[in-house]
């Protein structure tokens, strides 16, 4: 089975969305500017990628804040799905679809190490390689299965449950016979969690008393907490963990700035007395298992067993608003911007 | 090799140290009273133990605060080493030395499940079965080897490094070729850590700038933090962990009361970005491996490879001051009270 690559053009200049101010907290549109530059030629061991879908991901907030990762004046570091229009990399042919660190721009000059997935001919929709089959999906798959594999009858709490990571965690848990409980920030997302993403229960953390909701939905406690938020949600959830429970630290969406580090309830006694194991997961440490996970997720998708939502804007200027939308929760699925038509 | 059981008498009444007030924070002498009662006869499946060494341990603070564990008016729950003077338990003979949950009293009626170590004839000094070969030593052995086994060249930070748990963690680390760094609360304990317990470096956390001390003593970061304190020491140490480092939560000595839980720096981002694994360890979950660990520690001790300090008072009234001494750091080694001579 092959999916269609959408029509795209090959403009003569490269529009770049450059970071021009170090963001304070969440990046905003005015921290960026769009600049047109010439298209470069790939050198030996490089490929020229025509980006189709630019990705907006929470991790970019941390990158934008970090001078060692993101220089002011450079195109914003990002993931993207694109076509290798001119490849001088072994194993990647002209015309292959690729997913990797290609930046917010029309064209990227990339090395093999920048490519996370050599897709070749797509088997499922091209945009999904940046979402359910991209960093968020692979994060869900490798973190959950690697750190706290769900089993029959377990109760699993997931924060940002309607996001791409959380929605796939819910489905993995449900497939394993576990009972996923989702936390999200609006009533329509609560409905989507239950209807599409396999959640047995879901709550709008903005409107419920979370302590009471967990007491009621998980009276025997939580086996696993897949945590994409930290903050007050974590402080409440950790006190509902069963003994020997596991917490996966996968994101800190609840905290807009870590400089200086904010304060919160002390949690070390919970870890001790409940004999918990709390582990951090950073997907970029697991590049060697990335393509294997993409394959598994593609199979689930082809079998109709992987539900996901995408929120796709069009045109380079839309990129400026992508991160603000993400952090305000305004997006309705994996946030992407199609830039294949200049 | 057999060690001598010290002389003891068999008084006609049983002095009990009963908890008479729910302690606020650290238990103090006036929370207890000493009462004489008749000596009971063991029923079927029970044994009568003549306690010799009563133990004072940090965990008793938590027990004393918890109505489900410790009733007001009951003898204080504690560990002790004693002699089975009358056994109706299979596998335990009259005259066997035993270690277990015998309470702060002259005599205990115990079941098999209350006995952590059936010692029989002691191979090393009787008091050490309550310290280096007792709960603290076995905790150090099973937690460290189980959760983050030290290996050659690793840097391991240990808090309450001069205590019985910490002193043995230091020695296990040093024997494995790791580099243990100890934190303790006085200059003479710093000296003891380095001279006797295998520590490559040790600091008085009350007088150094801990952040600077760790930057200097572990410029490449910490592989493991064996944490007996939590609190501000933890908040500093976690920011010195290497990526993929491990934290063992084994005690929260720095925090006098958890009701309400105090606040501190948020640490979830450190766990995430450093991809740490932070695990809690409660020794009472590991009763099945207790005697095996005691055997290993006894062998080390007989080989002269296990250094430990004991701080032994005499006479039942001394028990009243044992916990205040422990939490003020006034003790100089495993805190025990010999009560074998009424």
TrEMBL record, chains A, B:
It comes from Novosphingobium marinum. CDD domains: PGDH (cd05288). The keyword Glycoprotein does not apply. This is Enoyl reductase (ER) domain-containing protein. The lineage of its organism: Bacteria, Pseudomonadati, Pseudomonadota, Alphaproteobacteria, Sphingomonadales. Gene3D superfamilies: Medium-chain alcohol dehydrogenases, catalytic domain, NAD(P)-binding Rossmann-like Domain. Keywords: Oxidoreductase. PANTHER family: PROSTAGLANDIN REDUCTASE, PROSTAGLANDIN REDUCTASE 1. The keyword Oxidoreductase applies. InterPro entries: ADH-like_C, ADH_N_2, ER, GroES-like_sf, MDR_fam, NAD(P)-bd_dom_sf. It holds the Pfam family ADH_N_2. Residues 25-337 form the Enoyl reductase (ER) domain. GO terms for molecular function: oxidoreductase activity, acting on the CH-CH group of donors, NAD or NADP as acceptor.
């Amino acid at each position: 089975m092959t999916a269609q690559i959408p029509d795209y053009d090959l403009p003569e200049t490269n529009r770049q969305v450059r970071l021009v101010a170090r963001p304070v907290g969440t990046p905003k549109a005015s921290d960026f500017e769009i600049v047109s530059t010439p298209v470069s030629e790939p050198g030996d061991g490089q490929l020229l990628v025509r980006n189709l879908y630019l990705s907006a991901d929470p991790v970019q907030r941390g990158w934008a804040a970090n001078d060692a990762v993101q220089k002011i004046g450079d195109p914003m570091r990002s993931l993207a799905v694109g076509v290798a229009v001119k490849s001088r990399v072994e194993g990647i042919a002209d015309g292959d679809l690729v997913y990797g660190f290609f930046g917010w721009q029309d064209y990227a000059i990339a090395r093999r190490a920048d490519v996370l997935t050599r897709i070749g001919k797509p088997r499922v929709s091209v945009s999904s390689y940046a979402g359910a089959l991209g960093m968020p999906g692979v994060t869900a798959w490798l973190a959950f299965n690697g750190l706290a594999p769900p089993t029959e009858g377990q109760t699993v709490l997931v924060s940002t449950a309607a996001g791409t990571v959380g929605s796939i965690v819910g489905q993995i848990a449900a497939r394993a016979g576990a009972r996923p409980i989702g936390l999200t920030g609006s009533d329509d997302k609560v409905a989507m969690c239950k209807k599409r993403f396999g959640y047995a229960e879901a709550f709008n953390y903005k409107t419920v008393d979370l302590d009471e909701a967990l007491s009621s939905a998980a009276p025997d406690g939580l086996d696993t907490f897949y945590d994409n938020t930290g903050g007050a949600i974590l402080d409440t959830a950790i006190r509902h963990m069963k003994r020997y429970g596991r917490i996966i630290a996968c994101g800190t969406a609840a905290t807009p700035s870590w400089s200086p580090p904010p304060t919160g309830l002390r949690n070390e006694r919970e870890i001790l007395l409940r004999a918990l194991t709390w582990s951090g997961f950073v997907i970029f440490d697991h590049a060697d298992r990335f393509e294997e996970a993409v394959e598994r997720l593609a199979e689930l998708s082809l079998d109709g067993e992987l539900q996901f939502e995408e929120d796709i804007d069009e045109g380079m200027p839309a990129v400026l608003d992508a991160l603000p939308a993400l952090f305000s929760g305004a997006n309705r699925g994996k946030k992407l911007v199609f830039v294949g038509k200049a």
